[in-house]
Amino acid sequence: MSKTTLAAMVGAGLMVANAGAALAEDSTLVRVSSPHSVSETIDKLSAAVENAGAKVFARIDHAKGGESVDMEIPDNEVLIFGNPKLGTPIIRDAQAAGLDLPIRVSAVETPDGTIILYRSPEAFAGSHGLPADHPSVVAMTGALKKLTSKAAE
User: Fold this and answer.
1) Sign of the dihedral defined by the CA atoms of residues 150, 114, 112, 123, in that order
2) Strand ranges inside the chain, DSSP E
3) Among 16, 70, 81, 117, which is 20 to 30 Å from 145 by CA?
4) CA–CA separation, 27 and 87 (whole Å)
5) Helices (H), ranges, 26-134
């Protein structure tokens, strides 16, 4: 085994360990375990989003991006989606909330399997001065719980 290969393997191992530590530290993230691969989980989430009448805006595969620059990371995909009926009232009441909307949900490969991650709507709403009981925040919280649960079935 070459020194370069060994260094890459050690580096990848450290990234996975550091990613797990970083996930454990952020209390604003909601975590849902999925029995599926990262790709299948995002496929199921995308279907659930579309079936609920929301719009998928983008799908990002961070691992493929890393491959394009000869870097390896564990599978990591993000789905960006939204529903203007929920997001618009939030942005109307706090324009900077547009930085956090549309919603982004990530599925990541960890040593313990696939984990679905998203920032809780209450957390980003609070960072923009909106109360956790704002009607759209409450609706968005419920929708995200249902959608991610469907992706993890």
Assistant:
1) negative
2) 29-34, 55-61, 76-82, 103-110, 113-119
3) 16
4) 23
5) 38-51, 62-67, 84-93, 121-127
Task: Give residue for tokens 């491959």.
Answer: 67
- The torsion of the CA quartet 75, 24, 34, 118, rounded to 10 degrees, works out to -80
The predicted-structure confidence for 47-75, as pLDDT tens digits, reads as follows 999 999 999 999 999 999 999 999 999 99
Instruction: Tell me which long-range contacts 82-86 makes (C-beta under 8 A, separation of at least 24).
Output: 82/54, 82/55, 82/57, 83/52, 83/53, 83/54, 83/55, 83/143, 86/136, 86/139, 86/140, 86/143
pTM: 0.83
Is there a contact between 147 and 51 (Cβ–Cβ < 8 Å)? no
Terminal-to-terminal C-alpha distance of the chain: 41
pLDDT for residue 17: 47
* pLDDT for 25: 79
CA distances from 4 to 17, 70, 75, 151 (A): 20, 12, 22, 38
Report the alpha-carbon distance of residue 140 to residue 10 in Å, rounded: 40
